Fold these 4 entries.
Entry 1:
Amino acid sequence: MKKIISVVGARPNFIKIAPIHRSFQKYKSDINHLICHTGQHFDEKMSKVFFDELQMPKPDFYLGLGGGSHALQTSRIMVEFEKILLDEKPDLVIVPGDVNSTIAASLVSSKLHIPVAHVEAGLRSFDKKMPEEVNRVLTDHISDYLFVTEKSGITNLKKEGVSDAKVYFTGNVMIDSLVNFMPFIDKSMFIEKIGVNKKNYVLATFHRPSNVDDEKNLTQLINALNNISKVREVVFPIHPRTMNNLKKYGLFDKLNDNIIVLEPIGYIDFLSLSKNAELVVTDSGGIQEETTYLGVQCITVRDNTERPITSEIGTNHMIGTDFNKVVDASISILSGEVKSGSIPDLWDGNASVRITKIIHDKLFSQ
């Protein structure tokens, strides 16, 4: 019996590991798949909602290490996760994404000579000011299995000198979760609950420090949403970080009446909002992927993306961080100037099946 520990820390991690956990059940006579939740995401209520909705078991290990600076958070996770590794002696550690939990678990595992598998490897924004970019690059270079979501990942890893033997193009596990839960998404009554009409509203989400921590940028963001709301209702689930800054800078009361403000919502209801929106305006990475699969127009308010396939063949519009351009692009799209898109290769709901088969075959061929 082989033992594998998957490490999750923030909500996108849960979405990526859930289908992998389900796929490992096929091999449960050979593989014991355990889950360690670092607690990096500080909203424990939301963490619980995500675990419940994604039909994942209670984590085998919970570290409860949210909050603090990047250095403090990463170091605390390393110290506590090392104890788990020394006790459990797993045959493999799986880390998804690019959060502090990802690099912390990778470093500890690598130094204890425990193989690491990175899910969502090879993505690059080429912006070292993003902490996620540092986490991605470092994790890739100390991992033994690199599972890639799109072809840019293969190109990036090759340029960085990573051995082809470590790289596997398996598709996107985020899409696996979306496909798996589509029946629940379609049955969601959340749109009716908040009183908006399908394909007649704009969904907005913002959480990146560059957009929400600076008072000037956040003011411009609110002005942009107010302008868009003159054309369509805007549904705005507000991230805790964003809400704190809106209150800090006295901007919350500046939101127009045509903006429906929501607290953070669960996975199923959020995807129902995404699927039925006429347009999504965001600075999220994962939402670029989900809207591409759903064929929903998406404006990304960032100067770069680590997921270029979403704008190359998907429905994502990379507009940059000039909020005047964001408003202009939004109005153009809402006026009918939409972008036709297609679904990237291997975004078919079976990435986790491919990943778990590779891991099983590799572990039992040694």
Entry 2:
Amino acid sequence: MTIYLDIVIIENLIMNYIILYATSIIAKKKVRHIRIFISSIIGTIYVIVLYVTKLPIYSNIISKLLLSLIMVYIMFKPENIKTLINNILLFYLTSFVFGGASTALIYLIKPEQILTKNGIFLGTYTLKIVFLGGIVGLFLIIVTINIIRSKFSKKDMFYNIEIQIEEKTIETKAMIDTGNLLKEPITNIPVIIVEHTLLYDTVEKEILNNLEEMLSGNFEKIPDEIKNKYLSKLKVIPFKSLGKENGMLLGIKVDKVKIENEENRKVIDKAIIGIYNKSLTRRGEYRALLGIDMI
């Protein structure tokens, strides 16, 4: 069997890119294409080195884990170790699905044209199979995610919450948002996103009406007595979303949060509410967002 190095490079570069791009979709993170491309090149270089050499150092599990860590770090540039580990696990999940789909297609179509060298599958199969494997893998992931989401009934997605700030209590309906993994970066306390209009009877209007100014460090419109009262409770919460790469929310540390629905009830002694200065939904079905780890 004749193996052409340029074909091996193109195949691995394409498959690496598809897998990394699919991983970014599953992680709900907007990643620049140049980062995905650089990470794909690194993975391809490793495969070529592994193919043309017989050094054990390149084929052991430590080097493969190190490669995964480097590729994921270059693409996502995670803020902390926990996020890095989560991204690596998603990367492996996506890789296993794509790899399994591609290998199955290859063996079904032309199994006689497959060989293994240094732990790498090679063959004379066409790039069409590589593309088809990527499409099948992405389809399987999307179907699986939709099945998992369908298991959550509407009652499982909504909770009644009570937020206690000093002697005052706020009651509202909150929706579970699997993409809400916000935590205060210093204390690692989970953050509940709350509409600012919900807080008008509890938090001073001078705070709620000047959120942007306070985030930029301007406290001129805040009276000294209010500033002194909230200074130790105010937190700045960084966040990322598809529409905003480097967003900031003003947060307030609250005394207690009660979360309950028909089947579950939980009390959180330490929590922070992130004040959102718009409406979360047009129909007002809910006015707060909970992270999945809070339940």
Entry 3:
Amino acid sequence: MRNIIILLLFISEASFAMNYTKNSDSALCNGIDTNCIESCHKLLMAKVVLEGRHNTFSITDNSFGEKLEYSINSNTNLGFGLNYKGIGVEFQFAPKSLNNDNVLYGKSNQFSISSSANGRRFIYNVYLRSSQGFHTTTGSPIVGDTTGAVAYYYRSDIQNVNLGMECVYLFNNKHFSSSAPYNFTQRQKKSSGTKLLGTFFSLYTISADSVIFPDSLKDRFKPEVQFKDAGNLVWGVSFGYTYTFVFRKYWYLNLFALPGLSIQQYFATNAYSEQTKSKVSLGIAFQSRLSFGYNKPRYFLGFAFLGNNYTINNDKSSSINYKYGSVRLYYGYRFNLRKDYLTRIAK
């Protein structure tokens, strides 16, 4: 299926209500310092999104020093979204005019559904992602071709499924908005940051009809590390920091870093012996975000990157690393329904 429809539900906390109370130091909105944060939850927000997703995994033979990496043929998705009073919905599809590289990389089918929120105290994400059809990230010279062209190994049978959740607590939730740089239900008016404490859980699987390695590359890897399916069950904790710089009043830059340590149950089925091995070990995770743009009371535009990186040390002789994330370009406008409606009536 070439066209992909991705449904993302963003459910924000109801604590963004605009009931103001005053104290001697600052204006508070249910515990939020309104000198630093402006809520837009009463405005209808409409946005257009252009998004590219990446999903790669690699196998490293620590004895031979060889590495094989696969990636999906990432589509460029066009999306439309609405958000009103903390409840939002976004639809995406992949226009054929923006995705015409099947001849070079092969076809990938993708499906994703998630529920997430950048709330006052918590950031959470629950997701299910499935991808099928992977190609090697490094091409090989074509025999007899003198133009320097390369060919990529393509495996339509390789499938990846990732199911998980994550929850992050924000310590400085009075002055810092996690929504402002990514969901835009708020605006960060003054620079601020916060420490982060999180937990995460995931199930990650890779499966294929036969050995995951192309025939021409099998000799570079030891037989015991060559599998036809593998995966891991992960639970971990993370601690990091995020900061939003606000300059020239409406420009912003958000940096987000969240390293984590996990306990994981690794399992794999050898492609030759059909034996399944399992091992419990420590793993390393790292989540990063970056957002940059221009956010005025009525409209916004910008760029955002979200990435996740996990390393599985399955044994002393090999390791698996997998990465996924997205790059988004967006433009949005906020409508004051009541005010705009009354203005039209008056005219």
Entry 4:
Amino acid sequence: MNAHPEQDILTLTRGVSTLRFAPWAGGRLLSWHVGGQPVIVWPDNANWSEPARVRGGNPLLFPFLGRHRVDGQIGRWRDAQGVVRDLPMHGFARDLPFAAQVDRDGHGLQMTLVDSEATRAGYPFSFRFQAAYRLADAHTLDVTLAATNSGPDPLPWYAGHHFYFALPHTQRAQTTLDLPASQRRYQFADGSISVPEPGQAQYRLDDASIIDRFHVLEPTPPATPVRLVAPGLGRAVTIDLNRPGSLPWYAVTTWTEAADSDFYCVEPWLGLPDAIHNGLGLRWLAPGQTETATLRIGVETLGG
């Protein structure tokens, strides 16, 4: 499918906010516009034949996130019995179709993925994974991930978001990211995770040392929100990770692709890459239980 599938895109609006979704393409939030300006960006030239690979929107990372590997091979994991299975980087959710249900008032959407023969080959568990988006008001977006173990065995998982925030690359030097108290870590080429080093309270986004870095939150939940301040766009984006009833978010990852990429990713994660092996954020969900991770994104006008 190379044509733009407008007929398959769901659009939700509230006041000056517009959300666009492709549930069939990994439950993907494509874009969020506030007052006609992109906050979460989707490229005009998106390759719809491989939507999971498009640099934009918010890919859902489940059941594992990041790179996991066995004997140097990325995309493999070993269970407690020593069985090695194939599971793609960032998991399979972003490649699969979700069922979708729009809220009655039209201000929210819930998307659901359940296990299938295809998922059980690399992840032999019964589950229901849900992603809910809701516009609390015209400038505030609530996002919830929920995992339910519908099988008889404990289920390992660590999910996350991959928000692509719109930011012209020429504005990185004047754009700052405020973070709660954190320890900075990264993944080595062999898959191991670096030892923690003290994180800073603020970074400029032209700082190449934070590309592909994990800001491990200590303590959780964080006392202050994540705040992306972009004077060139006249706005600040706040990510509140201390929401009622939410699991503790483990880390916030910062990443962009290239020096001329007009986006910057700020990604709340429930664990670190390879947690299935290193245990850093790995969660075990008991049979019949549900766990929920919630955050709130707010957009405010600077000086307004």
